[in-house]
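Input.
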Amino acid sequence: MDNNYIKIKIDLPLAVAPLEQDMYFQILSIFLWNKGVSGVETRDNETFMEWEDGNIPIKDHIEAIIYFDKVIDVDSFLFELKKELKNIIKDEKLLINSIKSITYEVNKNEDWKNEWKKFFKPIKISKHIVIKPEWETYDIKDDEFVIDINPDMAFGTGLHETTKLIVQTIEKVFLQEKYNLSSMLDVGAGTGILGMSASMLNSDLTNIDLIEIDLEARRIAKNNIIKNKLKNVNMLDILIEDVNITYDLVVSNIISSVLYDIKNELIEKTKNILVLSGVQASEKDEFIRKFSSNKLKLIDLFQLNDWIGLLYVKR
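Output.
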């Protein structure tokens, strides 16, 4: 690796409902990884627990920080970056603001890959679950389960409101003795937080399968599962259409438009309970209408800030 590394910053606008707020970043990240970036960090008001001196929490945009651990033709890359932004951001004012925000610097620091880690701190996301970056220490209370994660530079901590909603919802489900649950499927598992949380919360779950379309997320999830020594959690290298069994509990934390697309598959794989999130509160009525089915009964709805979680039982 060169002694020099390149750090490029850009502000991305928040997407409006029904899209997830970081949708512009999600689309741009595909372009970035195809260009061979070494790491991508995002800063917003949800993912960062601490702030550098002089910085204030970001509320109206997402700051993306792009790293190259080698010297590149910066002018050429920025030209292609701006061209890609034009394809992604259709609002001219928002596009201009993003382009104007671009800055870059060349630094000498052989340990640059570890600098971003200082911002991620342990956080309690439900009554019993604490998410802890593996490089941090934490004093565990008697009623807590701690999940050690290494989110890697591409994925952040996964502590979005929708993640918290599903963990809090399944925690409540596990407390109700009327549900006899022994298997679980997480569709769109990301770095594996939901499956690992369920494993720690409910020892009766003998089989927890995770599926995820993103290959890098699969790799990180597999490492996290091994790190936490959870033998009943499995990241499968298949897609939802390849799942040929049913599960007592199915969870999915994906943007609502994708939930619509895989609605039939989610219902088909569910034996008893289906928990969904990724739905903005402003689209609650529309989502409930579109996701209605004579095979499902909506029995509860939870809200955290601008997001909702939904609990269905199979009829």
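The chain has a mean pLDDT of 85.
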